[in-house]
Amino acid sequence: MATPPDNPGVVVRPPLLFGAAFIAVLVLRWFWPMPILGHAMTLLLGLVLLLLGLAIVIPGRRALRAAGTNVNPSLPTTVIVASGPFRFSRNPLYVGLTLLYCGLTLAFNTWWGLVLLVPILIIMHRGVVLREERYLEQKFGETYRQYCSRVGRYLSPR
Length: 158
Description:
The chain is mostly helical and 158 residues long.
């Protein structure tokens, strides 16, 4: 009997999903702009969300690398990381990517980004996050369950 692969089997790499969706946003915006608000306001809010997203993603990647595990979800996870932004979210990179995407949506001032955010989040939750959770629980057992009891999936209540 073949052993299962040592990875969660995610349906897509998250940066590719967000990037492809944003390219679709730009194409849709070209044909039908659908502005949200006045451009100065959305640009400012967009920049704030971009900075916030970077403030989560950069330390999150550093925490994974410092722990010696893979950032790429199609590669094996070697340890449960509970430092850096992983103290507040089990998925800070995905929260950060969502903030980056929303920041770009506001900076480009188009409702299309928010329209496409719904399917992105469904794909992320079902095709990435839930698969990763099953994989991590199978691989790390009680260690992962204890981590889950302390830290929320997307944001901790504490």
